[in-house]
Task: structure prediction
Amino acid sequence: MVKNEKQPDPRLLFGKRLAQLRKELGWSQEQLALESGLARSYLGGIERGQRNIALLNICRLAETLNVPVSQLMDFENKLD
Result:
């Protein structure tokens, strides 16, 4: 890795991955919010990469989406 090479913001990558998995289920942000107990506006911020999500909320979202946490974090080569 070159030091001057700018790496993508992991918050953006995580948000895109979350949105991708949510859409694969055919869920709206509102439905994911209701199922997970997290605020819809908070989820929107996560998906836009504006929030630095806590580990507990990552675990909560993975459980709600019925995927392992590692699948939420697997954003390399998974995003279009």
The chain has a mean pLDDT of 91. The helical segments are 10-24, 29-36, 40-47, 55-65, 69-73. The radius of gyration is 13 Å.
